[in-house]
Design a protein that fits this description.
heterodimer, A: mainly alpha, Formate dehydrogenase/DMSO reductase fold, 17 helices, B: mainly alpha, 7 helices
Chain lengths: 468, 180
């Protein structure tokens, strides 16, 4: 152990004197145990919300988009707001597992599994909106360039909405593969601990016969690194492409070159907030407080603070450029955001996104779990309103005053949004009881460098060697 | 071997799924959103009309723009009167090529391409008694009259040929007659 050097300044990432076996037991406990009453209650609520949303989606598709609050001027509102919101949330998972892997951040290991699950589940929610907001969703397959009988009629590759199709589907599939390869050793662990033939069977199917040989591990590491290298540009490009839906338009308030990085920053911002929301609950209910420590929450809060500040900078940049541009339409677009009929949503967005993350400068606040939880929710409310403000306030008043109007959502708009939240939690709750929610194989690699017991032993040894 | 079996099953399934089309019936449609016309299409049937047909008759005496009614009646006297009528076609609107084309389409089947009364139907003896143009005293006006109303076994061709086209055909018939 003396050959190992680690700065003593680093705090332990795993506390509670854990051994390898303790990690296994702690991670496997939620999978092997039975769901309690609380889980069933929450699951029932989520399922009910999901079914209600499903009903609203069916109603929309069978009756028409006119059941929503859209009008001729505001053709995008809650649908695309929710889409961008969910895609944004989905960005933190890949960021945690890919970008933090490239930066060799060990603290990612306790949270990456759940963050990736969150990515997958929220991208699935996001993926619903491009389909259900179509007037004719049954012709949705026309967005794919498939050879056909219309003289091989193809899609126009100039539309960012088509890029969205490629971006989201690639993002979902790469994230899914990345997630699943990471799961193999953990599924194998559950498989090897399984006591009933049924769970044995299931987990031996999903673990693909992982046997943990040196060669497997070597390739596993390489694949993870390559996928992380691929997923990082993907994370940046996916939300960039989503931002192109607006940035490539000619609508004042949308047509800005700052949107791509600003949307990505916002995505990381809201994604980390969602990870924080989920993990603060998960560490409590799944008894994982010794793996998802206050330090993890603090580090996520720092990321929220940084990206929140980037978003704040982007807001100020937009305002400055609007003033500096001398384009009266753009100036009016921002004046309308701040003082128009949707002023409340703008100021809600501003206060949630710009001011609330600044509390994280205080160590006392960012290490407070309750405060982090509240802020993480506030951030996601703020980021929802960011998309709402960008979309609706830019559309409802643009070039022709004769086309100025208002937007009012209907219960179907809201019902579908609630439905996706329900669906998300249905998936996440099922996940949390059937998947190893912490990448135990990864945590075991840092246990001897970052476990509190090992850190203590090292400090002891160092003291001894200093004394001789 | 296992994958071959799977491929066979897949191919078999896709053949089964795609072989339900019956040639005696229109094929299955996938979401026929704008396949059926909302408006009334020409020749279509609809209960909105008394006889169920979209093609309703124009009220008697109505004259559409760009149309001059033919006033000589369909009687022996009318036929005699038509003989003195002259072609309104001038040097610009007379079109011998078009007259020939129309003649070969609508007339030659009975009258023959030369106008000698030896058309395909006569040669095949489907019916007889088509005279040669040489045997009849016809003028441009009487040809127009006969093409408009028909005469004896011949029916009206006013449905197929417009007024101008009938005059063009009449000119061509006179040309054929002069060559007989």
């Amino acid at each position: 152990m003396s050959s190992h050097y680690e700065a003593p300044i680093r705090r332990p990432l795993v506390v509670g004197n854990k051994s390898y076996h303790d990690v296994t037991v702690d991670v496997a406990r939620p999978v092997e145990g039975r769901a309690n009453k609380l889980w069933w209650t929450v699951f029932t609520i989520a399922l009910a919300a999901f079914l209600w949303g499903l009903g609203c989606m069916t109603y929309t598709i069978t009756t028409g988009i006119g059941t929503w609050g859209l009008n001729k001027t505001v053709g995008w509102a809650w649908d695309i707001t929710n889409f961008v919101w969910w895609v944004g949330i989905g960005h933190a998972g890949t960021l945690i597992s890919a970008v933090l892997l490239l930066f060799r951040q060990k603290w990612r290991m306790a949270i990456n599994r759940s963050a990736e699950a969150m990515t997958i589940f929220s991208v699935m929610q996001a993926g619903l909106f491009p389909i259900i907001h179509m007037g004719r969703p049954w012709l949705g397959y026309w967005v794919l360039p498939i050879p056909n009988q219309f003289g091989s009629l193809w899609v126009n590759f100039n539309s960012p909405l088509l890029w969205d199709v490629f971006a989201i589907s690639t993002y979902l599939s790469v994230s899914l593969v990345f997630w699943w390869t990471g799961l193999l050793p953990d599924f194998a662990m559950i498989r090897d601990r399984a006591v009933t033939p049924f769970t044995k069977k299931i987990y031996s199917i999903v673990s693909f016969g992982w046997s943990g040989r040196a060669k497997d591990w070597q390739r596993f590491e390489e694949v993870s690194l390559v996928l992380a290298g691929l997923a990082t540009p993907l994370v940046l490009s996916v939300h960039t492409i989503v931002s192109f839906d607006f940035a490539t338009s000619i609508v004042p308030g949308w047509h800005t070159t700052i949107l791509p990085p600003y949307f990505v920053a916002g995505a990381i911002f809201s994604g980390f907030a969602m990870v924080n929301t989920l993990l603060i609950i998960m560490r409590k209910v799944s008894n994982l407080e010794e793996y998802i420590t206050v330090q993890h929450i603090e580090l996520m809060n720092i990321v929220i603070m940084i990206t929140g500040s980037i978003v704040g900078t982007a807001y100020i940049t937009e305002l400055f450029i609007a003033w500096y541009s001398g384009v009266e339409y753009e100036q009016y677009a921002f004046l309308n955001r701040a003082t128009g009929p949707y002023w409340w949503s703008y100021w809600l967005m501003m206060s949630c996104n710009v001011f609330s993350p600044q509390f994280m400068w205080s160590k006392k606040l960012r290490t407070s779990i309750t405060f982090s939880f509240i802020i993480s929710i506030v951030v996601n409310i703020g980021m929802w309103f960011e998309r709402f403000v960008i979309i609706v306030t830019s559309l409802h008043r643009d070039y022709l005053p004769s086309s100025w109007t208002m937007f009012q959502p209907t219960f179907v708009d809201a019902g579908i949004f609630i439905g996706t939240i329900g669906f998300f939690f249905v998936l996440f709750l099922l996940y949390s009881r059937s998947f190893p929610v912490i990448a135990q194989a990864e945590v075991k690699t840092i246990l001897k460098t970052s476990g509190d017991n090992f850190k203590r032993a090292r400090a002891q040894q160092d003291n001894n060697s200093d004394n001789h | 071997m296992k994958s071959l079996y799977k491929i066979i099953v897949l191919v078999g399934l896709s053949i089964m799924v795609t072989s339900c089309h019956d040639n005696a019936k229109p094929n299955y449609q996938f979401f026929p959103n704008m396949y059926e016309s909302v408006g009334y299409e020409t020749y279509s049937e609809s209960d909105a009309f008394k006889n169920g047909k979209e093609g309703q008759l124009v009220p008697d005496g109505a004259i559409k723009r760009g149309f001059v009614p033919y006033e000589i009646p369909n009687t022996p006297e009318g036929y005699a009167m038509s003989k003195s009528m002259t072609s309104p076609l001038d040097s610009i609107s007379s079109n011998p090529e078009k007259g020939k084309e129309l003649y070969n389409i609508y007339c030659a089947i009975c009258h023959g391409e030369k106008g000698n009364g030896k058309g395909k139907l006569v040669e095949r003896e489907k019916f007889l008694g088509v005279p040669s143009y040489k045997d009849r005293e016809v003028t441009s006006g009487s040809i127009f009259h006969v093409v408009t109303y028909g005469l004896n076994s011949m029916g009206s061709h006013a449905n197929q040929l417009s007024q101008e086209e009938r005059w063009q055909v009449a000119d061509y018939v006179l040309k054929l007659r002069s060559e007989l």
